[in-house]
Amino acid sequence: MTASLYDSPTWRGVFHDTELSPLFTDTAELRAKLLVMGTLALTQAKASQIPDVSAQAIQRASMEVQVDPAALSAMTAETSDPVTALVAEFGKEMQAPEHAKWIHFESDPALTAATGLSLRLRQSFKIIAARLGQDETPTFSAYHQDAAISEGVAGGLGLRDGHGTDPVKDIQSIADWISDAAAAVQTQTPADAAIQHQMPHLNAALQSASPETAPLVQAMTLPQMVLGLGRLIAPK
């Protein structure tokens, strides 16, 4: 079997979520991060941090360039930092070194990754909210170490300004929300019961992760929590 039943062709009819699953693929993750980088470039140009012509080129390329997720594997293995690997590959694919040198200028990879995740979670929770028939769900933030840039990126992406907040703690709050929502579901099938049983354990792992391991633990647990809740509340 696969490492996750949510990705298994055999178990597709039991665990796969046709609306939510596409938001938790390597391709979706890269597209979200590229969108963040394009918006970041435009924001930094407005703040006179990078040339406007380069920002425009980066933003256009972020919508058009196709990056192979496998191309990020070697550098990510060395650094455990897929954002830095993406910056390097994105710059290579742009084929415009005079502009590519400004990609992700003086920005924190962890905050960019968190902002990209916010975009995917926002879309996920629109689907979840519709299934639950409610409007109140967690809000999602854009993060940057510079307050003005954070505000500009948040405005450009339609997210809340997360400057001064801890994205790890924000994800912990979202995971608590998911766990509580899952616990409130009346299970109908053994698969539902299994998902509901697993949810607090996934949440406990996420909540107890050390600062050094938190991003990796989130990457292993949060998609399963979102997809699990989605299946619990999917129309039967």
Fold and architecture overview:
It contains eleven helices and two strands, in the order αααααααβαβααα. Helices cover 65% and strands 2% of the residues. The chain is mostly helical. The chain is globular, with a radius of gyration of 18 Å. Helix 2 packs across helix 8, helix 7 packs parallel to helix 11 and helix 10 runs antiparallel to helix 11. The protein has a two-stranded parallel sheet. The mean pLDDT is 95. Strand 1, helix 8 and strand 2 form a beta-alpha-beta unit.
Instruction: Work out the helicity level.
Output: 55-70%
Order of helices and strands: HHHHHHHEHEHHH
Rounded to the nearest angstrom, the radius of gyration is: 18 Å
Q: What is the strand tally?
A: 2
The number of helices is 11
For the residues shown, what is the average pLDDT?
95
The assigned structural class equals mainly alpha
Major beta-sheet overview: 2 strands, parallel
Query: Taking strands numbered 1, 2, ... along the chain, how are they ordered across the largest sheet?
Result: 1-2
Q: Which stretches are low in confidence, meaning pLDDT under 50 for 5 or more residues running?
A: none
Describe the secondary-structure layout.
Elements: H1 12-15, H2 26-46, H3 52-64, H4 73-79, H5 82-94, H6 97-100, H7 109-132, E1 141-142, H8 147-157, E2 160-161, H9 167-183, H10 190-208, H11 214-233
Parallel strand pairs: 1-2
Helix pairs in contact: 2-3, 2-7, 2-8, 4-5, 7-11, 9-10, 9-11, 10-11
